[in-house]
Amino acid sequence: MIHRLFRHIDAGTTSYTDETGANPVSSYTCADRLDRERRTLFRDTPLLVGFSGRVAKAGDYVVEEIDGRSILITRDREGAVHAFHNVCSHRAAPVAQGSGNARRFVCPYHAWTYGLDGTLQSIPDGRSFDGVCKSAHGLSEIPSAEKHGLIFIRPGGGDPIDVDRHLAGLERDMAAYGFDRFHHYRSLTIERQMNWKLCPETFMEGYHLQYLHRESVGPIFFSNLMAFDSFGPHTRLTLPRRRIMELRDRPEEDWRLIPETAIIYNFFPNVTMVVQAGHVEMWRSYPSGDATDRCKVQVSVFTPEAVETEKARKYYEKNIDLAIRTVDGEDFPLSEAIQSGHAARAHETLIYGRNEPALTHFHASLNGALGA
Ligand code: FES
Ligand SMILES: [Fe+2]
Predict the structure, then answer these.
(1) Ligand 1 within 6 A of CB of 120
(2) What is the percentage of the chain residues whose pLDDT exceeds 70?
């Protein structure tokens, strides 16, 4: 990969598609289109929801809002991950909130109690529920799978998830990183007035680095220069930092890719993972109800070591702040303005340059999945 990046640097090139691409603006504004996306992409497709470290220990749990549904993710006593609808079997109250470590979940409404594996353990005043069989009224479980330190769920139910098959070649990268040893550092939610696709798209090219990010991360990277690869519907961009040039003076056996690049994955359809030297960011974008121009972005940061000392905290805060400030302070405000531009229907189509192959690939994959 480093040789490949050097070839681009020497020639002043980047990864290209054969032809420019186009995409109708209506894919950001059409309610029918969003409806199909929600049914197909956010119900049936396995969705990456985080690293194993989000629920590291037995009893850890987290409640996630995924396209308007409250999903409870747990790790049981045996270490297995589960995902449930966070909906009580009695009268549908949510049984858990936020995240933490628990031995059981007690519904706040009438205290029906569930185990980490979703089994219904107790019903207060059980005599009033004669004939209700506890074993048949646990939490409603949805398919989940954990591999390479990644947790996937299929929110709409259905078949079990085969992670490697879903990763379509990316499993080799994922197995190599050792993400199963990473720690959850921090998560936050960002709500924005833009179509959910504008979040993954903002990470899909390096063409804008020297312009939009002139004052922030732009100077750190080569602009409009990256190596693009696709794996089934997923994509990977490898963007070189300018200091990669220093490797040329060093023996090749000392070359390391990760410190000299940002590697950006799109886990089809909605998750961007940015791998940098010190930490990994995950940006998960979901539609907000049936509004074509609203999304909820969950940002999580994972670190290779537990952040326990003040010094480590300062180091990570500095890197993470720059990353989040850049995206939330520069990319997303522009993405919201883009959404307004789409609403104005100034143009019928958007144009993707030959230097923006991930965007062309993303939309071809979306159209394929939607049968559009
Ligand atoms: S709704 Fe949960 S105990 Fe009644
Ligand atoms: Fe950007």
Answers:
(1) no
(2) 100
Q: What does the pLDDT look like over 25-44, one tens digit per residue?
A: 999 999 999 999 999 999 99
pLDDT digits 0-9 by tens, 206-239:
999 999 999 999 999 999 999 999 999 999 999 9
151 Cα: distance to centroid of ligand 1 (angstroms)? 28
Question: Residue 18 class from Cβ within 10 Å (0-12 exposed, 13-18 middle, 19+ buried)?
Answer: exposed
Ligand 1 contact via 314 beta carbon (within 6 Å): no
Is 122 a pocket residue for ligand 1 (Cβ < 6 Å)?
A: no
| Co-location of 105 and 189 in the same domain | no
Can you tell me which atom of ligand 1 is nearest the CA of 92? 1
Same domain, 120 and 100: yes
Residue nearest to atom 4 of ligand 1 (CA): 110
Give the pLDDT of residue 332. 97
CATH number of the domain that 136 lies in? 2.102.10.10
Region of poorest pLDDT, from 165-179, 229-243, 319-333, 342-356: 319-333
Cβ(105) – ligand 1 distance below 6 Å = no
- Mutating to test ligand 1, I would choose from 88, 104, 114, 123 the residue with most ligand atoms within 8 A of its C-beta, which is 88
CA of 86 to the centre of ligand 1 (A): 11
Other Cβ atoms less than 10 A from the Cβ of 119: the count is 15
Domain boundary among 142, 160, 178: 160
Domain identity same for 6 and 75: no
Determine contact, residues 213/332, Cβ cutoff 8 Å.
no
Looking up residue 363, the CATH number of its domain turns out to be: 3.90.380.10
- Which ligand sits nearest to residue 137's alpha carbon? 1
Same domain, 14 and 52: no
Average pLDDT over residues 311-329: 89
- Contacts for 187 with CB less than 8 Å, ≥ 6 apart: 54, 298, 299, 300, 301
What is the value of pTM for the model shown?
Answer: 0.96
Residues 285 and 270 sit within 8 Å (Cβ to Cβ): yes
pLDDT at 321 over 90: no
Does 132 contact ligand 1 (Cβ within 6 A)?
A: no
State the pairing for strand pair 47-51/150-153: antiparallel
Residues 222 and 86 in one domain: no
Distance of CA 318 to the CA centre of its chain: 22
For residues 40 and 105, state if they share a domain. Answer: no
The stretch 257-273 carries a mean pLDDT of: 97
Q: Which of 97, 104, 110, 122 to mutate to test the pocket of ligand 1 (most atoms within 8 A of CB)?
A: 110
Same domain assignment for residues 32 and 57: no
